[in-house]
Amino acid sequence: MTPELLRLWLPQVCALARRAGARIAEIYAACDYAVEKKSDGSPVTTADRAADALIISGLRQLTPALPIVTEETLAELPFERRAHWRDMWLVDPLDGTREFVARTGEFSVNIALVRDGEPVLGVVAAPLLDTVWFGGVGLGAWKWQAGAQHLIRVQPPRQGCRVAVSRRHGRRADDFIASLPQPVTPVHMGSAIKICLVAEGAADYYPRFGPTSYWDTAAGHAILRAAGGEIRDLHGAPLRYPPDKTLENPFFIAHGAVPWPENLTRFSG
């Protein structure tokens, strides 16, 4: 999969993510959605399903031969069917459904292309922030906001460091923050936007010591890599996205231009 082909696809995927985001924002503004519980107890709304259908249709038009895995359709794709895929789109049509229901506005549309387990293209659109982050292999990392776009890059911290966390981040994240050289400033944000904050240099670390799936991280991961950062598991190995029955990630740290923390395995238990 060449950089030229990715360069051709990227603006079309950005436009698709923005259309999905506009549909979500429309439903959000009208408060016209039902909230249900999935089998794992997580919420799903009318907006999730509307965005999912829109993105699947758009990706099928763009790349008819490439398979698509979304949070809402994984149950329809048995592992035997996915086991030997080299390429796949990974989609979370509404990342941060809890933030959507809580009406914080901190949710995103995530679309990633994975090749041989590596994220090679990613788009994260935050419709209520009027912002899109995008990038990939050979493309650089970019931020579009309010009609203007610019290259982004991880940045060394000027004084102390900043750690992106959700408002419901838990004890392990607090312990991680306490383990870093002080001062440390928490930056509260929902969904994959936290990874994008690291990519643009607005945060230095994003620790995750809770369950996530491939579609939660792959798009932001592609952008972060293109910006010069990385997402690693607690042993220091970069996250990968091979075919897997559950598509669940291990605990991880997204980081920018900062030292890799020591003794992270103590946060795994």
Q: What is the CATH topology assignment of the largest domain? A: Fructose-1,6-Bisphosphatase, Chain A, domain 1
CATH superfamily of the largest domain: Fructose-1,6-Bisphosphatase, subunit A, domain 1
Helix content: 25-40%
Largest sheet: 7 strands, mixed
Write down the secondary-structure element order.
HEEHEHEHEEEEEEHEHEHEE
State the strand order across the main sheet.
3-4-5-6-7-8-9
Low-confidence sequence ranges:
none
Look at the helices and sheets and give the structural class: alpha+beta
In a nutshell, what does this entry contain?
By secondary structure, the chain is an alpha+beta fold.
Description:
By secondary structure, this protein is α+β, with helices and mostly antiparallel strands. It has two domains: 3-151, Fructose-1,6-Bisphosphatase, subunit A, domain 1 (Fructose-1,6-Bisphosphatase, Chain A, domain 1, 2-Layer Sandwich), CATH 3.30.540; 161-267, D-Maltodextrin-Binding Protein, domain 2 (3-Layer(aba) Sandwich). Helices cover 31% and strands 27% of the residues. It contains seven helices and 14 strands. It has helices at residues 3-30, 46-62, 79-82, 97-102, 171-179, 193-199, 214-226, and strands at residues 35-37, 43-45, 68-70, 87-95, 108-115, 118-126, 131-136, 140-145, 148-151, 161-165, 184-188, 205-208, 230-233, 252-255. A seven-stranded mixed β-sheet has the order 3-4-5-6-7-8-9. Strands 12-14-13 form a three-stranded antiparallel β-sheet. Strands 1-2 form a two-stranded antiparallel sheet. Helix 3 links the parallel strand 3 (68-70) and strand 4. The longest helix has 28 residues, at 3-30. The protein is globular and about 50 Å long.
